[in-house]
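Minutes, project check-in

Agenda point 3 was the complex the collaborators sent over. CS summarized: two entities, 773 residues total, and the question is how they sit relative to each other. Sequences were read into the notes so everyone works from the same version.
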Amino acid sequence: MASLPDPSAPAGARSAGDLAGWLWSKLGDALDGPFRALQRHIGANRMAYVFLVPNVLVFGLFSFWPMMLNFYIAFTGGQSAILAERPFVGLENFRELLDCGSWLDPKSCPVAGFSFWTGIWNTLFFALVQVPVMIVVALATALVLNRDIAGRGFWRAVFFYPVMLSPVVVAVIWDWVLKRRGILNALIDDAVTGWNAFVTSGWFPFVGGFVLAAFLHLIMARLFRLMKVPRSEIWGAGVGIGLALLLVFSTAFREFLTLPDYRPVNWLIDVRSGWPMFWVIFVYTWGHLGFYMLILLAGLQAIPKDLYEAAEMDGTSKARQFWRITLPLLMPTMVVVLVLSLIRAFQAFDEIYVLTGGGPGQATKLIIQHVYEMAFIGDAKRYGIASASSVLVAAVLLVLTLGQLAATRRRAGG
Amino acid sequence: MINTADLSAFLGRRRGRAGLHWTDWLAYSYLVLGVLIVLMPILWMFLSSIKSPRALVENDPRMLPYEQVQVPAPDGARQLGVFVWTKPDGTKADVAFVGPRGLNARVFELGRPDQIIEVPRAQLERKDRLSPRWENYTEPTLGSTQSRTFNFLRYFWNSTFVTIVATLLTLVVNAMAAFALSKYRFRGRDFMVIVIVSTLLIPPTVILVPLFMTVSSLGMLNSLWGVIIPAIATPTGVFLLRQYMLTIPDELLEAARMDGASEWKIFWRIMLPLSLPALSVLAILSVMWRWNDFMWPLIVLTQSEVFTLQLGLSTFKGELNDNMHYLLAMTVLTLLPVTLVFVFLQKHITTGIANTGLK
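CS then shared the predicted structure for the full assembly.
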């Protein structure tokens, strides 16, 4: 904390920081007049209410009131954004969302229901794949960083860096990487061309032969040992090397190894492949992984070191230490991370909307995008449908959030 | 971020025994791979952002910004591309490409523009040179093309305004509430704490429509205040500051009251300075939230004069991308402030976030 600047030491302030501090205290003094008058009126203790007013006003107006309003709007129709002009339609909006032949098949729904259920199923798929993958990778990264590693601060910073980037920036970066003629396709193409050139080159018998011989000799030696052939080592080496030589000089084997020419994939546009969803999950994970890694790393570092030392004394294997010490003690943190990432995944919108716009077709359209599009895109502003969808999504999120609170409380308690 | 101590520690590391255990190798390979996956796309975008529009249209897959060497045509009317011609005898010469004729090309050797010769195109190879194009950065920000393509300065100003004003307001408003909830005893205090923390349960994404209607009925659509005000009261902020203020001894406040300080003065001159560590964590979080905010501005702001950088970028990306060179450069400029903040405050940010569990 910087020392309190003296209010009477003004223009000669030594640095910009001092000047800002001086301005800041002057601002406080200027506001002191009205507050002092108020205090004289209501007494010192009731000033607490005055301090609460701005916060309560903003919370009330922009959180609680909208939440109540949401339920009401869900039962109104029309296209007006003015509340008084919206006719009450009862359950009509919910009927349009839920009145399907089958919820599993969005095509059997009315127009709004189609959009809703497409979003719901995409979001479920997204969340159920993205969350476990991200937690596993985040945990692996945290475990690696929790080792006795050099330059830990640097590695941690780099893994965390994408979290600082805005979703729009993340989407522009990856859109640029994933273009049909972008760097990813170019790299894969180079790799395929390079591999094929290597397979057909004069170097292949030497390098490939060496690697293959080393590999086959181990396999053969083990095989012979299992078959109880005497002197399995020597036999294994002989047969392995012989096989390797045969393979390396046969054209059929080379042709087998030659990869077909690479045809660039339109990663974000190719409808029939699953690639757009894959990349949506990948990019979202890329942008959020660092945060969860950080939380898990903090959890790991809170585990007392002497537990491991004691286990080491007892000769417990590393794997067993992980399952018996690390994982159980990390469980509370894991639960928090799990619920938090689930809540976030259900609300994912920014990156994906900018990256694919929900496309190709509706392949990557998540539920929040459905809400956004219903209310704010196109000529027909279907606020009622959007609100009704929000109410349904909010119910899911509420369950998840309560779960998180319970988990947090258990962590705080234990 | 890397310093020599890190590097030498990395390279010359010994753990009592000679060399690294194989699991160490595995760990380091994992880290290097991860760092590549994190940094390569950003590096690729940066290097692309200094390429010429032509190199971008041609999708030149090389990392560095190459451009074909060009010479003026003899009549001076246009630029001709330069190629390296490998003659049948193996010698090479630089030639300027005049035009195609069937499978051949009409070229002249540099310095002899009057002798146009015909050579097979297979013998020509483009002559490139390294030329970063910084105009991608200067033109949309300083040049005359600015208003037509991407009004960077306007968006930048809007984003900066929103970030700074919202962060200051967030700090003051939440600190006031935290002060009231931590240093006064009054009826309904515990109830208020519960109410405020329970707003955490209201995800902003599911009250979009009613929030939009509220903001619209207050006449704050297409105004930066419509972006700033709805989110200045944050339950996380109140919670964070209150936890910290609870640790500040009440005796300090009592002493000030003895000296006749008003409650406001106690708040402004004692509580705020003493809560600086917690305030700075909230400030960092708020700057991150506001600078990167996308969804709420997208709904409140529809006219391009009030766009923030994030909105400007996403709109610009949605348009036909013959201005890719500007888009990439502006994206780099957008991530630059956050990156600088991160490089300098990295320790504070990561420990702050790890301790609070908030993003």
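Noted in discussion: The longest helix of chain A spans residues 111-145.
Follow-up: revisit at the next meeting once the mutant set is ready.
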